[in-house]
Amino acid sequence: METTAASSPSAASKLRHMLATKDIIVAPGVYDGFSARIALEVGFDSIYMTGAGTCASKLGQADLGLATLNDMRSHAEMMANLDPQIPLIADADTGYGGANMVARTVAQYHRSGVAALHIEDQIQAKRCGHLGGKAVVDTDTFVQRIRAAAQARRRLASDIVVIARTDALQTDGFDEAVRRLKAAAEAGADVAFLEGIQNDQQARDVCRALAPVPVLLNMVEHGATPSWTPDEARQLGFKVVIFPFAALAPAYNAIREAFVRIKETGRTGLDPEFTPKRLFTIVGLEDAVRVEDEAGGSLYDGV
């Protein structure tokens, strides 16, 4: 019997199975449809929609809480549906308001096909977790956000994974951050996320303190956190590792170099093997041709 999309497990269900069975889940950061397609081409079994990358690519702005729910949801929906079998973990910032807005956020991400979302305890005027000057809400407000998310998930009969992120390490210290994550887990969070981990000891301690709740590592190179490989992260006790800047930094360098060459020499210097057809193949040309052929059409003959 042919497996259909309707009979296949959801991406959220697949991610829950991965959390239960895999030693470590590795999700490269993607910031637009093209970078997501490249991650899928390489063969990752999960991907991560970075909020900083969404702000940069969709808005051309810094990650300072400028992206709205609609900005983030529409971006996530596009990425999640490029290959609905590959779980997308997505940034959901603070949940975009009080309990009702958090519930709305979870519902919209669920209906968009997102497998997991993380909600943090920064104030509404948030900023990237690796910038200074952050401020967090009180623990009760954070717990209410997570409880609202977990309750929304249950009302929807959804498997979407709720990740509780705290930025309190920089503002209130390690013990308070761990206390917040424990309270979030009790309120229904499936995964804990301590932002801005500073050393091996903090990494081991937070994983031990939260066990058996899985802990996510945000591997932002050249930020507050030391650079660890997925295997090193696994040994420290993490279950998930995301790499938000993995596509952003190489893209900036490569694009800028090409633009400088045009300005200075009038030529791009691009690899001659990167033809228009190569580009379109990366972003689904063969699938589009197949759909047309199976429908009995010939619109794309000869492409």
UniProtKB/TrEMBL annotation:
It comes from Metarhizium brunneum. InterPro entries: ICL/PEPM, Isocitrate_lyase_ph_CS, Pyrv/PenolPyrv_kinase-like_dom, Pyrv_kinase-like_dom_sf. The keyword Cytoplasm does not apply. This is 2,3-dimethylmalate lyase. It catalyses: (2S,3R)-3-hydroxybutane-1,2,3-tricarboxylate = pyruvate + succinate. The keyword ATP-binding does not apply. It comes from the Eukaryota. The gene is Dml_0. The lineage of its organism: Eukaryota, Fungi, Dikarya, Ascomycota, Pezizomycotina. Keywords: Lyase. PROSITE patterns: ISOCITRATE_LYASE. Belongs to the isocitrate lyase/PEP mutase superfamily. GO terms for molecular function: methylisocitrate lyase activity.
